[in-house]
Amino acid sequence: MNVMEIWVDRETGVNYVFHASGYTGGMTPLLDRDEKPVVSPVLNTSRY
């Protein structure tokens, strides 16, 4: 089984690449061409 996904931190918006193959896996920040983390806009999802 091979899996590759993009995960987004809900607090910071930082994007991560997750890859799993068999019994192993890893996660690392997704970087742009300037080697800076890719950051998505974060929606205000605070609960009252």
Shape: flat
Order of secondary-structure elements: EEE
Please state the CA-atom Rg, rounded to the nearest Å: 13 Å
Total count of strands? 3
Give the amount of beta strand, in percent.
35-45%
Work out the oligomeric state of the chains in this entry: single chain
- Tally of structural domains: 1
What features would you describe in this structure?
It comes from Blautia wexlerae. InterPro entries: DUF6440 (IPR045515). This is Xylan 1,4-beta-xylosidase. The protein has 48 residues and is mainly β. The chain has one domain. The chain has strands at 2-8, 15-21, 24-29. Strand 1 and strand 2 (15-21) form a beta hairpin. The chain starts with a strand and ends in a 19-residue tail after the last strand. The mean pLDDT is 93.
List the helices and strands and how they pair.
Elements lengths: L1 E7 L6 E7 L2 E6 L19
Antiparallel strand pairs: 1-2, 2-3
How would you sum up this structure in a few lines?
This protein has strands at residues 2-8, 15-21, 24-29.
Protein traits:
single chain; 48 residues; mainly beta; 3-stranded antiparallel beta sheet; DUF6440; Xylan 1,4-beta-xylosidase
